[in-house]
Amino acid sequence: MKLITILITDDIAQNRSYILQIISNMALNAQIQEAADGEIALKLVTAQIAKTGANFDLIIMDFKMPGINGQQTTTAIRQLEQAAKLNKQSYIITWSSAMSTPYVGADDWMPKMVDKSDIMRVLHFVYHSHLS
To answer: How far is 124 from 58, CA to CA, in rounded Å?
Structure first.
């Protein structure tokens, strides 16, 4: 099974832990990092690209966060990917109770009250389409 790199960005630690637990219980070959806000997410993305020449495979991005919100963070991530001329962009999920569609630059949307089937759907896509 391929290693999948995941970044979970949410300003509420319990939300990050919830997603982390769901993914961990799936026994994936995953390297997961967490960011408490958009600024930290951008630092982690910058470091990931510098270290590996690639971005995270999957980014789960909260919308409402202090500082820069998920939309602004996603836009900045897409600019970093473009500047680095990456072969593949991250698959970015809008994770929100305030929206019901992905915002500009995001690839998909998941409800804040996500369940295992939502995560499985996204991971299935990332593994079978995005990582190939």
So the answer is: 11
pLDDT of residue 130: 59
Structure confidence at residue 35 (pLDDT): 97
- 31, 41, 51: which is closest to 10 by C-alpha? 41
pLDDT value at residue 27? 65
Which CATH architecture best describes the domain 4-130?
3-Layer(aba) Sandwich (3.40)
Tell me the per-residue pLDDT of 64-110, one tens digit each, with 9 for 90 and over.
899 999 999 999 999 999 999 998 899 999 988 777 788 889 998 88
Q: Evaluate whether 42 touches 127 at the Cβ level (below 8 Å).
A: no
| Packed helices 13-25 and 116-125: angle between N→C axes, nearest 10 degrees | 70
The amino acid that residue 46 corresponds to is T
Domain range annotation of the chain: 4-130
Q: How far apart are CA 79 and CA 130, in angstroms?
A: 19
Q: Kindly tell me the burial class for residue 100, based on how many C-beta atoms sit within 10 Å of its own C-beta (0-12, 13-18, 19 or more).
A: exposed
